[in-house]
Amino acid sequence: MLDIKGVFKTFNPGSITEKKALRGIDLHLNEGDFVTIIGGNGAGKSTMLNAIAGVWPIDEGSIFIDGTDVTALPEHKRASLLGRVFQDPMTGTAASMQIEENLALAARRGKKRGLGWEVTNSEREKYHDMLVSLDLGLEDRLQAKVGLLSGGQRQALTLLMATLVKPKLLLLDEHTAALDPKTAAKVLEITDKVVNENHLTALMVTHNMSDAIKHGNRLIMMNEGKIVYDVSGEEKKKLTVEDLMKKFSEVGGHFSDRAILG
Predict the structure, then answer these.
(1) Is 69 helix (H, G, I), strand (E, B) or coil?
(2) What domains sit in the chain, N to C, each tagged with a CATH number?
(3) Angle of the 151-164 helix axis to the 181-197 helix axis, nearest 10
(4) pLDDT (tens digit per residue) in 26-70
(5) Nearest Cα residue to 170 out of 196, 148, 133
């Protein structure tokens, strides 16, 4: 579902602020893989997600999504292949629009739409049932403005919107980092449910070692723009936070207290 081959990216080359963000990244994801990405600040985690999304061109290498070479495609031409949830709960939804209107916009992604569209009764029933599964009480607030929701409610709604039209690849960029621990745990529970029930292929960046171990079927560790550790299956299930700390110290990396303590 995803093939990244020899990808390099340097910001501000030749200047005093030059930053080699990606240094020959190679990564292959099979359909249904749920991969967590761990690493220190500046390791290249979000940069890799931005490269996949086409936020800016890469310097070298290639990126394939479901067999399609998207390396030269601009961001808007990859949008139909991807779902994405960002760290900021304010991103990904229209605050001044109702919950049902946001969902309707997501449902029409990739389709032609004019100025006269409205939410139908059948759509409203569908959205009600979908929101029930989130267990956040949003199913009875379909006409509420999204700007009135809490951060956790907005992230859960954004996750639903990002997967309403099944994407080839779901990108989760520290989507619980701005939430309190209890809310973050709830959003991660919803994430597992949405990914598993829809058999999605997903990449989840996190600073939290425990979350990286607990969620997904595969874990990769990044440091200085490279993938330095890749573990999956039973080996991943046996990992501990201490194992990850030891592995990271072996490559000269440093995790923040937030990553260790969650």
Answers:
(1) strand
(2) 2-96+167-261 (3.40.50.300)
(3) 10
(4) 999 999 999 999 998 889 999 999 999 999 999 999 999 999 999
(5) 196
